[in-house]
Amino acid sequence: MKLEDLRKKQKQLINSIYEYTEKILISDFLFFSYIGARICYAGSHPLLLFYEEKFRDHVKFKEFLLHLKKAGHFSVFAHTPIFVNTSRFSFEEKFEIASTYFKVFWDEEERKALFNLRHFAENLEDDVFEKILDVNPDFEKVYIKFFRNYEKIFEGKFVDLPAELIEETKEFAEPEVIIMEVKREHPFRWIGVIVHGFSRIFSHQFVRHTWLNFNQRSHRYTSVDSFVIPESFKKKHMEIYRNIIENSMKYYREFCKEMKRESARFLVPQGVATSLLATGPDMVWKDFINKRAIPQAQEEIRKLAVLLKENL
């Protein structure tokens, strides 16, 4: 099937899928798409995104997500799950849907399918999509587990998180992991994980797990401000590493005066710290854990996998 024919087929089918969507659950998960969009452009701590005015103001929140749709920034909408009741679909209809849309999960016993908001953002007309967003995000049900240096420092409702736990960026980053779940009965168990203060060496491996959905802090739009220290570095290695960082940052700042950050960043060591949001259903997180919670994995991604294995 040609791409243009596939697009037509997706648009033809999407309204019948939307008809059987469990719309009441959408408001619980919309915040994931907001965080996915904003984490790319934020040099601040990822948890501070929840305190932004346009996150707290529903009108601005809705306008922001609509702008992303109209601009064609569809990837961020993949972070919001859409649950569809499939009991009214025939076997032939299910087969057609499954062969037309990418990244749809099925549970035939429960007669449910897991789509995501990207499927709707790409294929629904703006006025119909706007109705999906016309709900107040319910943040009371969001629970987090917050880890720093792989030690838990908070567990509970996000709204109860003490602000003093959110620290300023340091020259050498401390790895942080924030596990986010919506405590409401829903199929497939959708889980979000923010990693902060991990290296780009780590992120190159993490994003290979393509059944998860990712958005990452961009150093095209934010300045380099922190680096990761590998466990294996001893004092003599740290002296060399610090020297390399100081020299590269000196020239990075000079280059930034003459060109865009996207070009100047070629000088930056791979140990530069970054932040990512990853979301997906429980079964995909289990697959990630099985592949990475092993002795052969690189230390950062192995430690993340082990932490998730112990805490999901």
Can you characterise this structure?
- With 312 residues, this protein is of the alpha+beta class.
- Among the domains are: 3-133, no CATH class; 235-267.
- It has helices spanning 3-19, 26-39, 53-56, 58-70, 91-98, 117-123, 126-133, 200-206, 235-256, 261-264, 282-292, 299-311; strands at 81-85, 105-107, 112-116, 142-148, 151-157, 176-182, 190-199, 213-216, 273-281.
- A six-stranded antiparallel beta sheet has the order 5-4-6-7-9-8, sandwiched between helices.
- Strand 4 (142-148) and strand 5 (151-157) form a beta hairpin.
- Helix 1 crosses helix 6 (117-123), helix 4 (58-70) runs antiparallel to helix 7 (126-133) and helix 11 crosses helix 12 (299-311).
- The mean pLDDT is 94.
